[in-house]
Amino acid sequence: MTKVLVLYYSSYGHIEQMAEAVAEGARSAGATVDIRRVPETAPEAVVKGAGFKTDSAHPLIDGPDALKDYDAIIVGSPTRFGRMASQMASFWDTAGGVWYQGALHGKVGGAFTSSATQHGGNETTLFSIITNLLHFGLTIVGLDYGHADQQKIDEVLGGAPYGATTVAGGDGSRQPSVIDLAGARYQGRRIAEVATKLAA
Ligand SMILES: Cc1cc2nc3c(=O)[nH]c(=O)nc-3n(C[C@H](O)[C@H](O)[C@H](O)COP(=O)(O)O)c2cc1C
User: Fold this and answer.
1) Does residue 79 have a known ligand-binding role?
2) Which of 54, 80, 166 for mutating ligand 1's site (highest number of atoms within 8 Å of CB)?
3) pLDDT tens-digit map of 30-43
4) Angstrom distance (rounded) from CA 68 to CA 105
5) Dist CA 78 CA 93 (whole Å)
6) Torsional sign, CA 26, 91, 157, 173
7) What's the complex ipTM?
8) What would the mean pLDDT of 7-18 be, rounded to a whole number?
9) How remote is the CA of residue 121 from the centroid of ligand 1, in Å?
10) Ligand 1 centre from 86 Cα, in Å?
11) Where are the domains of the chain?
12) What distance in Å separates the CA atoms of residue 139 and residue 159, rounded to the nearest whole number?
């Protein structure tokens, strides 16, 4: 059975919700899915001062070698100054041994993100994740226009051909919408389907 890892970091829960939707989509394609977080690396004073969410039902990933156990790896991170969060980059920066072994070559990958504003850098964040994954040899699957609602313009929404996104608002009060979550599910399903086909 195809094994999918949804690996994420989330300070305020938007990416956590998107991760669950991505996982749902992958499961709907028949895959076995694990959702894992990367460790918090911000100082305690920042975590407390900025009100980061510290509780989660999802366990931490058991080190970089755990990446080898999956057919597909889908990475989610909030936007930080137009790129992935340092917490996520920091995890990948410990995976040099996995890179050296070429252990992820040919696996399927994808990216999803959240930003405060619609044009605050979510697409460049997706590409910062995708760039990282390409270095490890993953074959990237985005969010194709089969998720047709990404073309709507009558409401604020996330979603780009490069990956599922959501828009949190300047104060973080906007939650992932029905369409944003549908995009995340669609991408999860598509990635699991591609991974299953490549493994056949
Ligand atoms: C240090 C920092 C930098 C950020 N940079 C951006 C940014 O460049 N563009 C943007 O739209 N939002 C930015 N944000 C807002 C986050 O992207 C937003 O809080 C996040 O998408 C919410 O997702 P989460 O609930 O999963 O943490 C930033 C937030 C922080 C704390």
Assistant:
1) yes
2) 80
3) 999 999 999 999 99
4) 10
5) 18
6) positive
7) 0.99
8) 98
9) 9
10) 12
11) 3-199
12) 20
